[in-house]
From TrEMBL, chain A:
Official protein name in the record: DUF2849 domain-containing protein
Organism whose genome encodes this protein: Sphingorhabdus profundilacus
TrEMBL record, chain B:
Protein name: Nitrite/sulfite reductase
Top-rank lineage group of the source organism: Bacteria
Record has Heme as a keyword: yes
PANTHER family, alphabetized: BLR3264 PROTEIN, FERREDOXIN--NITRITE REDUCTASE, CHLOROPLASTIC
Keywords assigned by UniProt, alphabetized: 4Fe-4S, Heme, Iron, Iron-sulfur, Metal-binding, Oxidoreductase
Domain Nitrite/Sulfite reductase ferredoxin-like: 52-110, 340-392
Organism, as annotated: Sphingorhabdus profundilacus
Length: 98, 542
């Protein structure tokens, strides 16, 4: 599957295309198939996302898992500061990255 | 310390106002990201993995307590309560919001700080010896020269769009604490027949093509130095490879045309530049130098009481001799076992500011090894300073030992990285947590980069680690025998790479082989140079 990701323009936060908008949670991301480019241009033009790009991901029961470690780090947060990730209460959350 | 004059303040304030307008236009959609990106980079603002990252310039690593407190304030107000001190003697914040950035820069400007020229193909922050003005072995204080170069290079119209970024280091001691010869230009101030001048080295650097800068001129008179540097840059600006980003650094130019030809061209250009009269008048040099006058040292020369064993260990490891009797140089290690190299919380930054104000004539330095220095501490105050540092978890007695690791942010933060650096540093430091074992191993500079750009200086590590991407999986190459000091050398790869745990084991095997083979007072790198790679390879790969 393919996901569309980028950053919020003002805050810089990592965001994922949900089919109707943007979410900071990769679990909400949807497969954009071959249609990612047109969504990317429209959303970037409207400044609803900054520096967007399309990535490969693997569907899992818990939601999409980006294929490359760099995007998994982006999705969760730094592995060395669990307190600063999106799941600070789950010390094992970093296992999902590796 | 240098203090801004009205001109300095005016240009920094004007830049903040200009950037505020640029941000507003970007937020309003009047300019695209492609148009905005070079503008934000000129102000040190990158877009990294999780958010915007701001790199704040700390000229030649020198700060006063007011500036240090501002760095803590920014960490609290605009970031997530910490900052990361870098190998360029700067500080980076990892969670900055674009919409707040102009306010942040305005607050920075109020304490004579900025983020200008911390990115882009321009002359970056001038780096220097963290012991400047305190080292017993310096022939002159390098800071006035670093400041002169800072002023000369700031908004230099001819050198704002160089073929590639450009880094200059200035030292004034035979002992190189600034990796001087691994810079685009390295200057070593020296005296010849009583006259001050500089040895000029050009074309060093790390990255994907590490090179040690050759000496281009053994002695440039101090009066000619700015013209000579201008000539060095002009030749580079004219002939540097703008067609290929991987060949655009000056080291490639010097290597391709040869040091002799480069030297000849610089000499020719220098003869022309000298007719332009750009060297500053003596009065300006004296004005700048006056800011760096020695503090009013008046402490009696008393040796500290060593009866507290933990204090004695810290004293031996982290405190260095000062040129003034009665004083010492205190190194504050930002490398707690299992911690993140170079990171400090806002509370820790405040503690260091307070100690500088009270015990170090209001001065601090950031080192390229990602530590902090209190340059002028009276020996009678060392125990008090140590107690305060210990209270703040800043009394790690590991300077220059294996756990005093340089590491770039790596894949945990950096969009260029291929592998994580920090977890490797944490695991190695934890493996060697035993303080006695570390001290027995002795000086060992371990440096880790998460990609070939080498921000973690792995080429210059006695032991270096380079993280690479091997089919989507992190893999780590090991190098041995590098040095960024006066015995400068580039490390050599041992062989095939390792996974995360494998690299920690490999480092331990190399260290144990050294302990087995060392003779006398040999450091790790000395033994490596004497016996060569083979015994280490045998130990690592069996």
């Amino acid at each position: 599957m393919k996901l569309l990701t980028g950053n919020e323009l003002g805050s810089g936060a990592v965001t994922w295309w949900t089919g109707s908008g943007w979410s900071i949670h990769v679990e909400d991301a949807v497969d954009v198939g071959e249609g990612g480019e047109s969504i990317l241009h429209a959303e970037e033009g409207a400044r609803r996302v900054n520096a967007p790009y399309i990535i490969d991901a693997i569907p899992t029961p818990e939601g999409p898992r980006p294929a490359h470690i760099k995007d998994r780090v982006r999705a969760l947060g730094p592995t060395v500061r669990p307190d600063l990730t999106l799941k600070p209460a789950d010390p094992a959350a970093g296992d999902w990255i590796i | 310390m240098y203090k801004y004059d009205n001109y300095d303040q005016a240009i920094v304030d004007a830049r903040v106002a200009e950037f505020r307008d640029q941000v507003n236009r970007r937020m309003a959609g009047e300019i695209t990201e492609d148009q905005f990106k070079p503008l934000r980079l000129m102000n040190g603002l990158y877009l990294q993995l999780h958010a915007y990252m701001l790199r704040v310039a700390i000229p030649y690593g020198t700060l006063d307590s007011r500036q240090m407190r501002m760095l803590a304030h920014i960490a609290r107000k605009y970031d997530r309560d910490y900052g990361h001190f870098t190998t360029r003697q700067n500080i980076q914040y990892n969670w900055i919001k674009l919409e707040e950035c102009a306010d942040l820069l305005e607050e920075l400007a109020s304490v004579e700080m900025h983020a200008i020229q911390t990115s882009g193909n321009c002359i970056r922050n001038i780096s220097s010896d963290q012991y400047a003005g305190a080292a017993a072995d310096e022939v002159a204080d390098p800071r006035p020269w670093a400041e002169l170069l800072r002023q000369w290079s700031t908004f230099h119209p001819e050198f704002s769009y160089l073929p590639r970024k450009f880094k200059i280091a200035v030292i004034a001691s035979p002992e190189d604490r600034a990796a001087m010869r691994l810079h685009d230009i390295g200057l070593e101030l020296v005296k010849q027949d009583g006259e001050l001048g500089a040895r000029v080295f050009v074309g060093g650097g790390m990255g994907r093509t590490p090179m040690i800068a050759p000496e281009i001129n053994p002695f440039v008179k101090a009066d000619d130095l700015l013209s000579y540097i201008e000539a060095c840059l002009r030749v580079y600006n004219r002939y540097g490879r703008r067609d290929n980003i991987y060949k655009a650094r000056i080291k490639i130019l010097v290597h391709e045309i040869g040091a002799d030809e480069y030297r000849r061209q610089v000499a020719e250009e220098f003869a022309h530049v000298k007719t332009l009269g750009i060297d500053p008048p003596l009065a300006e040099l004296e004005r700048i130098s006056a800011f760096f006058a020695a503090p009013a040292f008046d402490a009696a020369d008393v040796e500290p009481d060593r009866s507290d064993p933990d204090f004695a260990v810290w004293l031996d490891q982290n405190v260095k001799p000062h040129k003034q009797a009665g004083y010492a140089i205190v190194n504050i290690s930002l490398k707690p076992i299992g911690g993140i190299p170079g990171d400090a919380s806002s509370a820790q930054i405040d503690v260091m500011a307070d100690l500088a104000e009270k015990y170090s004539f209001d001065e601090l330095r950031v080192t390229h090894a990602q530590n902090i220095v209190l340059p002028h501490v009276a020996k009678r105050d060392l125990y008090t300073v140590w107690q305060a540092l210990r209270e703040a978890d800043l009394a790690n007695a590991n300077l220059d030992l294996i756990s005093d690791i340089i590491a770039c942010p790596g894949l945990d933060y950096c969009s260029l990285a291929n592998a994580r650096s920090i977890p490797i540093a944490q695991k190695i430091a934890t493996r060697f947590a035993d303080a006695e074992r570390q001290r027995d191993v002795g000086e060992l500079k371990l440096k880790i980069s998460g990609c070939i750009n080498a921000c973690g200086h792995h080429h210059a590590g006695h032991i270096g680690i380079l993280g690479v991407d091997k089919k989507g999986v992190e893999n780590y190459q090991l190098t041995l025998g590098g040095s960024g000091a006066e015995d400068v050398s580039i490390g050599k790869i041992t062989g095939p790479g390792f996974d995360e745990d494998g690299i920690v084991d490999a480092v331990e095997k190399a260290v144990e082989k050294y302990r087995e083979l060392r003779e006398g007072d040999e450091r790790f790198v000395d033994t490596y140079r004497r016996v060569g790679m083979d015994p280490f390879k045998e130990a690592i790969y069996g």
